[in-house]
Amino acid sequence: MAYQADRSQYPSRRPDGSLDIDLSSGKYLKLWQGPQHPGITGNMSVELTVCGDEVVEGKTHVGYLHRGFEKLMERRTFIQCFPIVCRICVPEPDFNEYCYAAAVEELAGLEVPERADWIRTLILEMGRINSYLMYLGGQAGALGQGVIGQWTTYVRDLMLDRFEELSGARIYHMFIMPGGVRDGLPDGFDQRMEETLREIESTLADVKDVMFQNAVFKKRTVGLGYIDPAIVDQYGVTGPTARAAGVAKDVRRDQPYLVYPELDFEPVVGQDSDVFTRADVRRRDLLMSVDLIRQILARMPRSGAVMAPLPNVLHWKIPFGETYICGECSRGEYGYYLVTDGSGYPRRVNVRGPSYTHAMALLERLIVNCNISDVAALMVSLHTYPPEIER
Amino acid sequence: MLRELYEQLKGRFPLGELSEKRPDLAFITLPREQLRPVLLHLRDQEGFTHLVLLTAVDWIEDDRFQLTYLLHDRQGARDIGLRVMLSRQAVIEGAPMESIHDLWPTAATYQRELREMFGIDFPDSPGVNEDFILEGWREIPPYRRDFDTLKYSNETFAPRPGRESQDPAQHMKAQLYPDGA
Q1: pLDDT in tens, B8-39
Q2: Interface residue of B42, B53, B147 to substitute, partner A, most A CBs within 10 Å
Q3: What predicted TM-score, i.e. pTM, was given to this entire model?
Q4: Predicted ipTM?
Q5: Domains of chain A as residue ranges with CATH
């Protein structure tokens, strides 16, 4: 770490535990990081109170993206919700589609064809790769390494090409819908995917050399943003952030869904729980996704239905019930809590995004005593996407 | 698996009904005064250490708010949802609900959101009265069922000149069944 002294006693605390920050003393300064700032993850902001170059308090502010998705869905039929859900997470929209579809299927008693499950798993892993590539660029960029973002954007673009030929869309794929998926794989997809995967592996080898072996990157990230494994559950930490702390949480292994029980993999785990380890866990997890895609393409059935017969979706009423469906997205546990009341509309949809816990309570805790110049790197290392906080 | 746990819990606490959804997911309704002891028991004795989510459902026709506390046990690979029913009228009149931020610090964020979106108050929760997503909101809490989004939208935002507005359901129907079948 760049700074070792424990200055956590500054400023003093009031009897109720709050910080006694007197801005007129000239000792402290308010500094807004975001909502327009290169070192912020999406449209959110952190209100920093700094003493010198050290943060003594940080408060996350969200709301810049609130479109009331959950409320909107209460006034839409079940099928009309389908193009809404993917908008809740731009870089990795497919988890919204999967969780929503699986929740509707469970409450409506729909049986999804096996081939659709394989294609769903493939899409989720493709989305994970996209999300991690974007993250790696952001993490390096937050520490001044602009070139990594250019490389990862290039290979991410190749993966978007694969999405485009599969679904017709690059960002919001809308491919996983209640009942199954919209189509099978196009001709020659496997070969083009293999070429893309090789390009990703080659780029990641370069990223490993240039980013992870870089003295500046190491010096600035090793020891930064330490998360004690003991607070992982207290703060609802999941995904790579928890795994970097040595807690092998991975929904794909803990509560297997889709075809994950048939795939050969072990959750990637780290030990040191700092920004460097989190980046490394994600890099290795990305490589694991490359391997999983190869396994899926080698073993998936090539014929058969991809869609269960649906009732007339304009008059689709789902019986009274509630359920929770979750999956392991690139940032952690992503889940949908769906409540139905027998009508043609959801009674309540609640989206549980990992950023909700990571960017609020956890970030506000980790940011104390952080140097101003490290705030961006710390935030990015939690891999947060604000829309899933605001929904 | 979860029925066994329910039977065991029932011996210790007065609980309401159990509804099993999957072998790894069940919901239990319980009186609000039992919430904290049951949460503590599940967290400290049964391995449900992860608070997955805390949210509310508005059953306006029954004059109830349902609070759902969803917990996860990683070792046992199972989730359990605790449902607490609150009188809707009492909540609107300002009746408070007990905070659980001391059990899971992250619950403070959920409670802050519930305060803003449903108007359910958790008086001891840190920062619960600070604006979360909606800055300067003057209407009733918007996730309540009686908040009319369309009316609010029509009154607040001026329609863009020349823009047509269509009812999505009617539009889809016309697209799918042009003959009116």
Answers
A1: 888 888 888 899 999 999 999 999 999 999 99
A2: B53
A3: 0.91
A4: 0.90
A5: 1-66+355-384 (no CATH), 69-352 (1.10.645.10)
